Amino acid sequence: MWAGLNARADVVGLGELHVRSRRWRQGEVAYAVHTRHWGSGIATAIATQLVGFAFDRLGLHRVAATCDPRNVDSAAVLRKVGMTRRGG
Predict the structure, then answer these.
(1) Residue 19 lies in a domain
(2) How many Å apart are CA 29 and CA 20, to the nearest integer?
(3) What's the pLDDT tens digit per position in 48-83?
(4) How many domains does one find in the chain?
(5) Residue 38: helix, strand or coil by DSSP?
(6) CATH code of the domain containing 16
(7) pTM higher than 0.90 for the full model?
């Protein structure tokens, strides 16, 4: 779990990295940010840290995430961290 903090050290978001398969080196990331802090870059910062840790520190081969495609802001966060859309 990761915590997103503001300048006063209040928790304003969180993130999680789950290793789905050690054998196939696959993981999944998730994040959430309090609505008062949407658009502030916290989700992107959390996702960047999670994906970087997954590849650089854990040596994963593939990292997935899921979002509702109608949530254009969350989809944009995933694109910013280098993810590509798969499926419907």
Answers:
(1) yes
(2) 10
(3) 999 999 999 999 999 999 998 889 999 999 999 999
(4) 1
(5) coil
(6) 3.40.630.30
(7) no
